[in-house]
Amino acid sequence: MPNVPTPHNEAREGEIAPFVLMPGDPLRAEKLADNYLSDVKRFNTVRNMFGYTGTYKGERISVMGSGMGIPSIGIYSYELYHFYNVETIVRIGTAGALSPDVDVRDIVLGEGACTDSNYAQQFRAPGTLAPIADFGLLRKAADAADCLGYPVRVGNVVSSDVFYNDDETVNDRWARMGVLAVEMESAALYLNAMRARKKALTILTISDKPASGESLSAQERQESLTRMMKIALTLATDG
Questions:
Q1: Cross-strand pairs, 114
Q2: Helix axis angle, 135-148 relative to 218-238, nearest 10°?
Q3: Quick one: which H or E segment has residue 82?
């Protein structure tokens, strides 16, 4: 296995499972490993971007933080796909609702990821690339949510490079095109997966609704995140 460890990941060959759950927050990765996995081993502490491998219902899986934004997840997901033989990455994160029909606590499956980033330009496509999820994962996630009794929304999200945007009309214009929610990572993950011929999906919990000013309390956020994590873990055991 070439190029490992990397400047960003101290894992050795074989220490990362083919299936990786990727929250943005490394402390959330640590909590997920502590609460859901057994026989856990930490494989990365570089820059405090914690990564762990363990087992869940007999399946070996890994969980690792991605950090915030397209550049960060772009690095970590690239290395996982290309240097560590990872086949599937499922991003589990939070997002802000854009569609009037999406509320706090809702779970959104990112079918596609619009973006204001220029990340896709490196691939020199003769047009506009459409970053999309793996359909098999998307279908399994929707089915798993249905079995668990969790309603989900499926559709486009937007991965923005800007959190504090000087243009206050941006969210309204994305919403006008039917985009469900805004976050900051999925487009890079999907593009890296497409280029590597690997699998990716984003599962999001709506933590706030900018148009109305609604947001989840810390306790409500944790309860909602638990539902999202259960869907993602079901994917790990379904292959």
A1: 158
A2: 120
A3: helix 70-83
Contact indicator for 159, 188 with CB cutoff of 8 Å: yes
- Each residue of 161-180: pLDDT tens digit? 999 999 999 999 999 999 99
Distance between CA atoms of 22 and 89, rounded to whole angstroms? 7
pLDDT of residue 239 exceeding 90, the answer is no
Cβ contacts of residue 114 below 8 Å, gap of 6+? 156, 157, 158, 159, 174, 177, 179, 187
Its pTM stands at 0.96
Q: How many CA within 13 A on the CB side of residue 33?
A: 27
The residue among 175, 186, 176 whose CA lies nearest residue 210 is 175
Which member of 25, 116, 172, 208 is catalytic? 208
Task: Categorize the per-residue pLDDT at 216 as very low, low, confident or very high, splitting at 50, 70 and 90.
Answer: confident
39 tagged catalytic? no
Q: Tens digits of per-residue pLDDT, 45-79? A: 999 999 999 999 999 999 999 999 999 999 999 99
Contact 94, 182 (CB under 8 A): no
